Amino acid sequence: MFTRIQIQTVSWCNRSCAFCPSGKFPVDKTFMPLDVYHRVIDQLRDLNFDGRISPYLMNESLLDKRLPDLIAYARKQCPESWIAINTNGDALSESLAGRLFEAGLNCMDVNAYDDTSQYEAYLALAERIVERHPEIQLTSGYLDPNFNASDLTRHSKRLHCRDMSDWTRRFNDKLDIADMTNRSGNVPGATHVAEPLALDCERPFQQMYINHHGEAVLCCNDWRFEVVMGDTAESPLHEIWNNDKYRTYREHLQRQDRHLPLCASCDYRGTSKV
């Protein structure tokens, strides 16, 4: 069974960064209906899910004003889960952060994409948040050398500030960087894959992705919903996860064969063997 799930509660982001597909093609600005969100979370409850729940996917999480309530519902239905979000920080405030963590959020990663001064401002905001909520652990930097995922529990609270300005600059200047990908060909100007790479990929073995329609899509790179694996209105999550379409993709990836749709144009090199 999957250990992580991302749920797209809103369909868009307020930014259009050079390294991201956001803003590069038209997207209807819409919210996931509440009954669809509840259906997905209820299906997780029925699975006694205790992995990571992330109420965002290909969007800016804080654009959804319902987010504290959505997190509270996920916490109630899946009490042992680990709930985490990423944000560009534009809509973050002390009061909102407090509401999110009080609702049951475990981890918030705040990414500063503009410049170092923005990162410093976010870090100062994070320090004020932690001063008001000392139960939250504050960490910072692009990578946290002391972070160990095995230490995470449903009781942990962590706020991490990440300076991404150099990462953004390197992409804008067309400099090589190891963890930059073309998002399956959805990033204009990124590396083009002439032939499918002979690589595996861990994502369809570990993580599930639910778009704002309530459909399971293959990957977080599927910005256009090209490869829909199933609809949670028609089949529960565990049936979708084990259906023939998923099995076919996994079999191909285990053979390091990326000739199937979406995978064929992807330059993601993975983080672990499958």
UniProtKB/TrEMBL annotation:
Residue ranges of every copy of the 4Fe4S-binding SPASM domain listed in the record: 201-267
Pfam families in UniProt: Radical_SAM, SPASM
Cofactor(s), names only, from the UniProt record: [4Fe-4S] cluster
Keyword list, A-Z: 4Fe-4S, Iron, Iron-sulfur, Metal-binding, S-adenosyl-L-methionine
Molecular function, one GO term: metal ion binding
Segments forming domain Radical SAM core: 9-111
Native species: Entotheonella factor
InterPro entries in the record: 4Fe4S-binding_SPASM_dom, Aldolase_TIM, rSAM, rSAM_sf
Entries under Gene3D superfamilies matching the protein: Aldolase class I (3.20.20.70)
Entry protein name: Uncharacterized protein
